[in-house]
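Summary for the steering committee. The consortium agreed at its last meeting that each partner would contribute one worked example illustrating the joint modelling workflow. Our contribution is presented below. We chose a case with several input lines so that the handling of multiple components could be demonstrated. No manual editing was applied between input and output; the record is shown as generated.
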Amino acid sequence: MQSQAATPPGRPLPVISDLNRPMLEGADDKLRLQFCPQCGRWVFYPRIACPSCLNMDLKWREASGKGHVIAQTVVHRVQHPALAHLAPAAMVAVELHEGPVVIASMAGGENVPGIGSEVAVVMEEFGPGVHMPSFQVVS
Amino acid sequence: MTASKSQGTESRSVNRAWDGVRIVGWGETPYHRRDQRSTVWYLADAVRRALSNAGLPKNAVDGIAVTSFQLPPDNATTFAHHLGIEARWVMQGVHGGASGVASILQATRMIQAGDADVVVCVAGDAFDVEGHMRLLGRFNQPMRDYLGPYPYGGPNGLFALVQSRHMEMYGTKREQLGRLAVAQRQNAQRNPNALLRDPLTLDDYLNARLIAEPLGLYDCVLPCAGAGAVVLAREDHPDIDLSRSLRILAGAQLHNYRPDDVVVLNSGFEAFGEAIFATAGLARDEIDMLQLYDDYPIMALIQLEDLGFAAKGEGGQLLERVDMTVEGDLPINTGGGQLSAGQCGAGGGIIGLVEATRQLLHEAPGRQVPFARTALVAGFGMVGYGRGLSTTAAILGR
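What follows is the complete predicted structure of the assembly.
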């Protein structure tokens, strides 16, 4: 999905590295997260080592991308000038079915779902070849 | 507050884990809305004022703890060099708003072990709103890479998430949180160094423009320039006046409490709250004032709950029934706190410690808590992915 915010100049972007490339470079709507084959847990944000068992050989897996909203806000004062045009911006914290909590925008708009709402990931292009998760309500 | 306060804290039957060290001085620079001087100027001025208050010469100092977001490319060691301080121990606080209390707790261990005699703990920044925003872009890697690309609003947005969850789960109301903001403003009106001293009513609080829902303008701090410092010394140091000194009765720090939690309503304070009161030998109603870490009223409320002043989820009701002003039954942030005095960057982690020290030394003219003997100081800092990572608290007594 194309972003509502296709790369305004100066938009802050993540530093892409081997640590996060599989998550950020996918152009489909799949959320890829790290998984620890040694202890069986999912990991977000991307880590060098498993925060449960310190296994340094984390694997990337496709996650369901689904979860429920545990917290929400509408941001009126955005922190970065290059993002100011996005205000008011709906942000949610989502507990994924796999366990990790992801904080991200609601795709395309200021309508923020209530706590407990079921949502699913869409990947939005934040910059050339850089995709980050956003959420939309599952209807 | 009970009659026992008139006896002081020397007769308590307790663990002596923190004995042998005294807090002997404090210093606070003027707070400025815009940095008029460099970060090092503010830090140096706080050190100079604290040593003057302690009655100790610079050459007595052999340990220093410094916390400042804007100190790089300098650091605690080069700052000590700048001031001509030959030190046996140097620490750089990396716990943001938890650094002030962390500094005195670690300094105490060094002094107890004989590895320092006199330690200055200082924190501050030459900040303003723009500087605060610039800092966000390089605060830490997960914030830069996984929050910074979103219009998440910085810490305001993150703590709005926390407040939304607390309101949903426990029915906490903005009217309750506003009582803390209003009480702190009343306290600030008695502090000439506070930057926000205009009257503030609950209606003003509720009707202020929204920053990140449900947070409004008066839920958020004003970034500013300033610094604070305290001086600790070995109890048997020949040049200190024991009759004008404070004890650390208990203290604890905990970082990354429950590492997997994100956007949490429970903090590290719940893990050590009982222990610090037991170590101090004091009940909660024997604490004469609280200096809480008030980057947002909701975070002060979570500290009240996790430290056991209210059951989990009942902090809002506590705020409804107590008077948090200087003469109240539960004075909180008696100089106005960060919400009304201003947040001078990392100095937000020492403002409560400086205020508690002044109050317990009975050196807070115009806002002195009557007969103050004991204070609890809490620090909460180093925002990571979706939460503050560091929690610290100390109980001080005269």
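Chain A has one domain: 21-137. The two ends of chain A are 18 Å apart (CA to CA).
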